């Protein structure tokens, strides 16, 4: 029971962590190319790092919930 709750919490946190990638991509795509700055580019890079981390959390939750342990 505790393992399933922990896996569900990890999965929820991972899915909630995906929104910065969507928002950052939308934000930069709406700016004209002459208004893009280094901070905008770094912001998109940061959102990509956050999304990659959240994908790792989702993957870990999936592995944790589907791995059958004996003993």
What features would you highlight for this structure?
mainly alpha; 3 helices; 71 residues
State the secondary-structure class: mainly alpha
Q: So what's the overall shape? A: rod-shaped
Q: Which radius of gyration do the C-alpha atoms yield? A: 17 Å
**Helix-strand pattern:** HHH
Number of strands: 0
End-to-end span in angstroms?
Answer: 16 Å
- Percent of residues in helices comes to over 70%
Describe this structure in words.
By secondary structure, the chain is mostly helical. The protein has one domain. Helices cover 77% and strands 0% of the residues. It is built from 3 helices and no strands. The longest helix has 29 residues, at 38-66. The two termini are 16 Å apart. The mean pLDDT is 74.
Helix and strand layout, with pairings?
Blueprint lengths: L1 H15 L2 H11 L8 H29 L5
Helix pairs in contact: 1-3, 2-3
In brief:
This protein is mainly alpha-helical and 71 residues long. Helices cover 77% and strands 0% of the residues.
């Amino acid at each position: 029971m505790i393992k399933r709750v922990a896996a569900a919490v990890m999965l929820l946190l991972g899915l909630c962590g995906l929104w910065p990638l969507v928002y950052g991509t939308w934000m930069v795509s709406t700016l004209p190319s002459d208004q893009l700055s280094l901070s905008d580019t770094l912001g998109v890079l940061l959102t990509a790092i956050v999304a990659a981390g959240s994908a790792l959390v989702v993957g870990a939750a999936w592995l944790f919930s589907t791995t059958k342990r004996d003993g």
